Amino acid sequence: MSEFDGKSVIITGGGGHGGRALARLFAEAGAKVAAFDISEASLAGFHADMASKTAATLGIACDLRDWDQLQASADRVATAFGGIDILINTATARTNPVWKGIEDCSHAELTELMEVGPNGTLGAMRAVLPYMKGKGGKIINFGSGSGRNPAPGLGAYGMSKAAVHSLTKLAAREWSKYRINVNGILPFMMTPTMAQSLRDDPHALDPFLPPLNWIGDAERDIGQVVLFLASSASDYITGQNLPVDGGTDMMF
Ligand SMILES: NC(=O)c1ccc[n+]([C@@H]2O[C@H](COP(=O)([O-])OP(=O)(O)OC[C@H]3O[C@@H](n4cnc5c(N)ncnc54)[C@H](O)[C@@H]3O)[C@@H](O)[C@H]2O)c1
Q1: Whole-number mean pLDDT of the chain?
Q2: Distance between CA atoms of 66 and 68, rounded to whole angstroms?
Q3: pLDDT digit string (tens) for 44-65?
Q4: With 0-12 CB in 10 A as exposed, 13-18 as middle and 19+ as buried, what is 16?
């Protein structure tokens, strides 16, 4: 028996790498898990993972840039699961202009980063708010070290994440009256792309190794901290943007 038994969790970007890892952890802990994702392929991955779980699950095709879709999706989850207790925002724009300087990033690329990042995160938070008001809730937003320590070439992405960090702190203050804790995770975790580079060259990621000398695993290293922030053990923590990055944050 875990405290997540029967709890209702929404994960935006729930078909992505980190989102799927979290969905597995929460489903194993007994929670009912809904994934919002724009990509049918990502949602198919979520459904494949959930097939072996006993918990109730829901994969919803939803574009975070459309707040009406977000509200309708949240309403659907609340009806199916009997409420909403936890929101985890992991979605990130598919057109992330990686390694493009701010002089080269197009307006369309920047707009998508902002629309899916801070705007989509706020849209999801607003959509669940009616269901958390009165009984409380937990919101966890995925930020990034590049939103704290500007990284040349990742400027537009960093701008969008810095806005997410600010939103996290602001909402923690404004929504404390509703007993909603809002915190952020700034992860460093292995992705399928990074794993492929390592298969091609075992030393490819050496320059990026943090002080702890390994790249985090989405379930073991990041997911356990998200579980903590979603649990009653963190009831006295709010408005924190926590690097979970093997110490990378200290290097800048
Ligand atoms: N991997 C790292 O080291 C690292 C570092 C810092 C921050 N992060 C952050 O961690 C989070 C999770 O990363 P990930 O590797 O799981 O990402 P991912 O790319 O695997 O997943 C993101 C998901 O968001 C979905 N998405 C994109 N646009 C959307 C939209 N408009 N509406 C709904 N869904 C949409 C995608 O379809 C995808 O499934 C992201 O916010 C990322 O920025 C990761």
Answers
A1: 96
A2: 6
A3: 999 999 999 998 999 999 999 9
A4: buried
Q: Sign (positive/negative) of CA torsion 170, 173, 177, 183? A: positive
Beta carbon of 176 within 6 Å of any ligand 1 atom: no
Best CA proximity match to 138, nearest among 73, 185, 75, 91: 185
Answer yes or no: is pLDDT of 231 > 90: yes
Cβ(187)–Cβ(249) below 8 Å: no
Among the atoms of ligand 1, which is closest to the Cα of residue 116? 31
User: For the chain, how far is it from start to end, CA to CA, in angstroms?
Assistant: 42
Q: What angle do CA 184, 108, 112 make, to 5 degrees?
A: 25
Q: Minimal CA–CA distance to 102: which of 94, 115, 113, 93?
A: 113
Compute the distance from residue 94 Cα to the ligand 1 centre, in Å. Answer: 8
Q: How far is the CA of 20 from the centre of ligand 1 (A)?
A: 11
- Classify the C-alpha dihedral 98-143-250-110 as positive or negative: positive
What is the per-residue pLDDT for 99?
A: 78
Q: Domains in the chain, please, with CATH?
A: 8-189+217-245 (3.40.50.720)
pLDDT tens, 124-138? 999 999 999 989 999
Q: Please give the structure tokens belonging to residue 128.
A: 């669940």
Query: DSSP letter string over 141-185?
Result: EE--GGGTS--TT-HHHHHHHHHHHHHHHHHHHHTGGGTEEEEEE
The Å distance, Cα 134 to ligand 1 centre, comes to 30
180-209 per-position pLDDT tens digit? 999 999 999 999 999 999 999 999 999 899
